[in-house]
Amino acid sequence: MQTGLSPEQKTVTQERPAEPAEASQVAMPETAAPPAMPALLAEHVTKEFRVGRKKKPVMAINDVSLRIERGEIYGVLGANGSGKSTLIRLFSTLLTLDTGRVEVFGHDIERDEMAVKRMINRVSVDAAFFKKLSPFENLAYAARLYGMDPTEAKAESIRILARLGIAEKRLSRPLEQMSRGMQQKVAIARALLTSPILLLMDEPTTGLDPRSKLEVQSFVEQLRDTHDATIVLTTHDMDEAERLCQRIAILNDGRIVAEDTPERLKAQVAAEHGEEPTMHNVFMTYTGRSLDDDLDEESSEDEED
Fold this sequence. Notes:
This protein is an alpha/beta fold. It contains 11 helices and 10 strands. The chain has a single domain, classed as Rossmann fold (3-Layer(aba) Sandwich). It has helices spanning 7-15, 84-91, 113-119, 135-145, 150-163, 180-193, 210-227, 238-244, 262-273, 279-287, 291-296, and strands at 40-49, 58-68, 73-77, 99-104, 107-108, 120-123, 198-202, 230-234, 247-252, 255-260. Helix 5 (150-163) packs across helix 6 (180-193) and helix 9 (262-273) packs across helix 10. The longest helix has 18 residues, at 210-227. The chain is globular, with a radius of gyration of 28 Å.
């Protein structure tokens, strides 16, 4: 009985091509990870207002779509009447959509309105207060509405107000005795008190002196970095937008006419129009209006904005 292989058989065996690896060892192509859930997703949003019975409806928001990622500071720039404040009110559920859809961290703002309200807060240029009450009393009232522990709310209120430059000795003074800028700081503190994961800021630094404006801007950056907050910011301040915002959308007549990082927007305007690469020139290029025209306009951002 023969055992082993003959020399010829050994040669054939050694020259035989290697067998392919087992199926379990074959490298399979990696599947792409699903995209992260956006903080805010708007698709084909429109909103009209009727001003008087005989007048035609005003298209405040016209087919706006955008996607804002978690942890982003997203800026919205536009002239008075462009739709900035209307967009913020729609996102905050204060206005209803005519068409389109909006989701906040996967929650539809119409079907899941209460869940959305627990995740967001809003700072408006025209903040509403109990003017006879002090800053601390206004914040304490807001804390109760959100079910916060009174002791924790008091400590957090003092910390936030101090960070915004409001000393503890001023906390008992009625708001009606405070400046417009100081009242705006209290409005920001009230919004931050509930630690929203989506903060909607509608021209938050309007009326503030340069020092107070810088304090608020620094606090906004700190909020993003330490509280994992996503921020939507409307502003008239081009320097503020460039400093704070990762991306900027320019709104004109209710439509988004440009959207990108400040650096890319400036580079595009410089390359296509030969303009100096500044945010002021970006604003003028896409809206056809100067910043001074915007600020001097008499119309307020009410229902038509």
